[in-house]
Structure formats: structure tokens, C-alpha cells
Amino acid sequence: MQHAIDQRVFVAGHRGMVGSAIVRCLRALGYRDIVTAPRDALDLTDQRQVAAFFAAQSIDQVYLAAAKVGGIHANNTYPAEFIHQNLMIEANVIHAAHLHGVQKLLFLGSSCIYPKLAAQPMTEEALLTGLLEPTNEPYAIAKIAGIKLCESYNRQYGRDYRSAMPTNLYGPGDNYHPENSHVIPALMRRVHEARLAGAPEVVIWGSGTPRREFLHVDDMAAAAVHLMNVSAAAYAAETRPMCSHINVGTGVDVTIRELAESLAQVVGYPGRLVFDSTKPDGTPRKLLDVARAERLGWRARIGLAEGLASTYREAFLDGASLRLG
């Protein structure tokens, strides 16, 4: 596989965790023409602004990593914002890309698109075969709509718009807000602060029994660039017209209790971990079948222990400021 390093590439959401990792990956590979636009210069929920941007930029490839994201608490608290903003972003960007002749686009989704009780590990064919997890249903529906947008433009106009569905991500650039973040950054911050305060225990939402799969964001970025540039023939051989997305993960999961214990070890916290079973657990298990991605030549390289340790150093020990928003 050869990377199209001379292409003019737009990374939507370049300041987010995934988008910034994609930019790092592209630069490391030698890409010379990477286009980005901060939110105050380009509001991706504004159709007119997005159309004008594409008209002026002559883009060849688009990585659609921009999204409103958050954990269980944020999804439960702001369902309208999660479905509205994500629908607007993907509709505006995908449609504008098509209208302005962009042939290649990669849409980044989420493993929450699959039914709550989908067979494990979840294959791409599980999409739309059952009810979604209620706590993040609005976000999941928006991401499913993004997949179907890509499929529809491919089918009607012959575009090459692909979709990657990552498992739970963590790493540099994550959001460490104690309520609006995902499980790893929220727990990492809580355990870190408990160690500094000498607190005897840390209370964790849920029973600790749900199983989750975690992927370092630098692995996700490498997968995104790989999937964008793999040949159309190879990609088509692993998909079909109405199942065009590819799972991206490690193929390995752990319980939330095991994750918390690993984080306590990384942080050096000696106290108790207390699980509050009155709080929601979310989906019982979320493990992706990653056979398609592996057949296309990509495999995760950063193990969870290594990734947690490097993430903790970067966020809490090396003088970096936390992203609280």
C-alpha cells in the first residue's frame, strides 16, 4: 500500500484527540499538504460555512474525525446536543465533499453503533440487528446515519467514502473532565487525585463487571490512514455495498474492575476501589471482531499496560495541562 502523500488532505476535527493523532500520523508519513480549520474559523454545523470552505480549498481526501463525544454521564445529560451536532457535522461535510468533487473520504464512527446485546465479538454485520444501548442511543443513531450517508453517496454517485468504527479510545489529547469524559480519562484523573489527597478509597460508577476494549489513539490514527489508502479492490473485497464500515480495535477486552486495578497500579494508588452498583453499567460487553481490518493489513501495536503508562505520564507527570472541557 502506498500513501498518497502528495494529496491535499483535510482533517476535520484536528484539535480533538482523534483528529490530532491523524495529523501526527500523516506528518510522520511525509504528507506535505494537510488542511485544518479551527472551530472559530469553520463551524462544521453551519452548512453555508462548510460549503464555502470546500469551494475554496480543492480538497482531495477528507478524514471526518470531528464529533461531539463524551461518556455515559454526558450522553445521558445532553442527548439533544449529541444527536443534533453529530448529524449536522457529518451531513454538511459529506455532502460538501461530494459537491466539490472529493472522491475519497473516511468517516470515523464508534462501536456504540451496535445493538446492546449483540453477539460478541461484534461483527460489522451486527449493525441494525437489535436495540441500541439507551444511554448513548442518540449518539449511536447519528453515527449510523454517517455510515449510511457514505454508503448512499457511494451507491448513487460512485464515491469512495469509507467508514471506520473504533472501539473505546484513549491517549494524548483526551478529555479529563470528571463527569463528561470517557472511562479511562475519568478514572485516571480520579485515581490520580485520590493519590495526591491520600484518600482511602475511590468510588467508581457501576458494578465493575462490564467488559470493554480499549485502543490507543495513535493506533486508531494509523488504522485510519491505512484504511483510507488501501486499494479500492482490497477494501471492496472485505465489504459490500450496504456494509461498508470496518471495525478498528485490539480484539481483546477487560472488565472495568480490571481496568481500574491497572490504573491504580500505574498511578501508584494504594487505596480501595469501591464500585457503586446503583449507577448504570451501560452495555454488558463491547468487543469488536477486527478480522476485516487485520485481513486488510492493519493490527493494533500498543498494548493496554504500555498505553496507560504513557498516557498517564503525558497527562499528569510531564507538565502537560489537562483538557477539562
Automatic annotation (TrEMBL):
Which positions fall inside the NAD-dependent epimerase/dehydratase domain?
Answer: 9-232
Q: Quote the catalytic activity from the record.
A: GDP-beta-L-fucose + NADP(+) = GDP-4-dehydro-alpha-D-rhamnose + NADPH + H(+)
Could you say which residues bind NADP(+) here?
A: 13-19, 108-111, 143, 166-169, 182
Pathway involvement of the protein, from the record? Nucleotide-sugar biosynthesis; GDP-L-fucose biosynthesis via de novo pathway; GDP-L-fucose from GDP-alpha-D-mannose: step 2/2
Q: Which residues form the active site?
A: 139
Gene Ontology molecular function: any one: isomerase activity
Under the heading InterPro entries, the entry gives: Epimerase_deHydtase (IPR001509), GDP_fucose/colitose_synth (IPR028614), NAD(P)-bd_dom_sf (IPR036291)
Q: Where is this site: Important for catalytic activity?
A: 110, 112
Broad class of enzyme this protein falls into: oxidoreductase
Residues bound to substrate are: 190, 205, 212, 281
Q: Name one Pfam family in it.
A: Epimerase
What EC number(s) does its UniProt record assign?
Answer: 1.1.1.271
UniProt keyword list: Isomerase, Multifunctional enzyme, NADP, Oxidoreductase
Q: Which GO terms describe its biological process?
A: 'de novo' GDP-L-fucose biosynthetic process
Its function? Catalyzes the two-step NADP-dependent conversion of GDP-4-dehydro-6-deoxy-D-mannose to GDP-fucose, involving an epimerase and a reductase reaction.
Family note: Belongs to the NAD(P)-dependent epimerase/dehydratase family. Fucose synthase subfamily.
Q: Report the protein name in the record.
A: GDP-L-fucose synthase
Q: Which species is listed as the source? A: Zoogloea ramigera
As recorded in Swiss-Prot or TrEMBL, the protein's gene is named: fcl
